[in-house]
Amino acid sequence: MTRQTPSLNDQYHKTRTVAPPVGPLGVLTPGLGAVASTFIAGVIAAREGLFPPVGSISQMAHIRLGDKSEGRNPLIKDFVPLVSLDDMVFGGWDPLSANVLEAARTCEVLQERDLASISAELENIAAMDAVFDQKWVSRLDGVRVKQIDSKKDQAQALINDIEDFRSSHDCERMVMIWCGSTEAFSEPSEVHSSVKAFEAGLAVNDPNISPSQIYAYAALQSEVPFANGAPNLTVDLPWARELARIRNTPIAGKDFKTGQTLLKTILAPGFKARMLGLSGWYSTNILGNRDGEVLDAPENFKSKEVSKLGVLDTILQPDVYPDLYNDIHHVVRINYYPPRGDNKEGWDNIDIFGWMGYPMQIKVDFLCRDSILAAPIVLDLALFMDLAARAGESGVQEWLSFYFKAPQPKNRPQDRSQSDDSFNVEHDLFIQQTKLKNTLREWMGEKPVTHSEAG
């Protein structure tokens, strides 16, 4: 009798043990500026029935189960055991604002009419003093910072903050999402090669250790899942992978995929699907919020540029399709323009070519609201990172690549001195969506869907 090899569907059809979400989930954000204050205000407004959480996959999206004929298409939040919005509590650190209400009013993303009914709750969420170093964000002057010179002591102070928050809010579980500013561009160094090297670096104030890395270290030592929403070199380093494994804690990153890059990961797969050639993609942005001010410094823009430039090659595969994509001129610019505030404008000129090499052009003008697009990403990452921890996951959560401009690969680089940027990862938004939903299906004992998500 011929032995039957288990199919892919059979391999997935085994339910993962996921602990229930008992008690409140603490969500800590280094940085309580435009993104974090908008996220917190939106969650509070959603749970009070003022606005639905538009843009949140975890709250608004359905997930098809089985064949289309079965008609099973529940909301994701009804399919997997996510924590309720009512059971989320918020905290964070900020070098400028005293509380979330002050931050929201300063950043001017949300109008006063939308803040008024929830202002008391926002004001009660006080900012903890931040670990801050102006070397990494030259355009900001931190005024609410920890007066601690030793990086080792800074890390311990953050660990103490985490434990104080855990105790005062009776949180069994917590997650940390970096919502702070983009740090100056840096390269991996020997101090990042292992936990031992990193801890030695903390003790001697190694200049290659940034504030975001200190926050990540404190989170992982506290067994708090950490997701990096900026293009900083943070958990995409060997020491962070090692510590995440030791502490059995999930990590993810990096750089929230919001405006212009979101459109690139939607459009580029379409060009490739139709085998249309691409000769150039010029992208420029005007942005006036704190992020725009920080990115006006060349060393900080470099971090963002590297993150944004890495998308097209991975999607279009120029090595596989050299006639179509071998010589793309990809340019990215960001310009600080204060009158625009948080309402970023992303303008793209796309030069494509078709049959017999005839050129065509596409113009895209995306007048978006940066923090409005980022806020639901923070919500989803908080809920899904908590779910991953309760499912026994640790290390890089590649299935959450959907949310990042420069997602981390699960398999680390062989050269321990390198960051994850040296590895290619999937950038196609639709493949990322399938991976995200199939991971949830797998954990709940359902078969994967390999074609249409409609149902």
Computed Rg:
22 Å
Residue-averaged pLDDT: 91
CATH architecture of the largest domain: 3-Layer(aba) Sandwich
Low-confidence stretches: 1-12
- CATH third-level topology of the largest domain: Rossmann fold
The major beta sheet can be summarized as: 7 strands, parallel
Number of strands: 11
Strand-pairing-aware structural class: alpha/beta
CATH superfamily of the largest domain: NAD(P)-binding Rossmann-like Domain
Task: For the record, give the distance between the C-alpha atoms at the N and C termini, rounded to a whole number.
Answer: 38 Å
Please give the order of strands in the largest beta sheet.
3-2-1-4-5-6-11
Percentage of helical residues?
A: 25-40%
Number of discrete helical segments: 18
Order of helices and strands: HEHHHEHHHEHEHHEHEHEHHHHEEEHEH
The level-1 CATH class of the largest domain: Alpha Beta
Oligomerization state: single chain
Outline: globular
What would your notes on this structure say?
With 455 residues, the chain is an alpha/beta fold. The chain has two domains: 10-256 and 372-443, NAD(P)-binding Rossmann-like Domain (Rossmann fold, 3-Layer(aba) Sandwich), CATH 3.40.50.720; 260-367, Dihydrodipicolinate Reductase, domain 2, CATH 3.30.360.10. 37% of the residues lie in helices and 15% in strands. The protein contains 18 helices and eleven strands. The protein has helices at 8-12, 34-47, 57-60, 76-79, 100-107, 112-115, 119-123, 151-168, 195-203, 211-221, 238-246, 260-273, 290-295, 298-309, 311-316, 322-325, 370-390, 429-443, and strands at residues 25-30, 88-93, 127-128, 173-178, 226-228, 250-253, 277-287, 329-336, 345-353, 359-367, 395-396. The strands form two sheets. Strands 3-2-1-4-5-6-11 form a seven-stranded parallel sheet, sandwiched between helices. The longest helix is centred in the C-terminal third of the chain and has 21 residues, at 370-390. It is globular and about 65 Å long. The model is unreliable at 1-12 (pLDDT under 50).
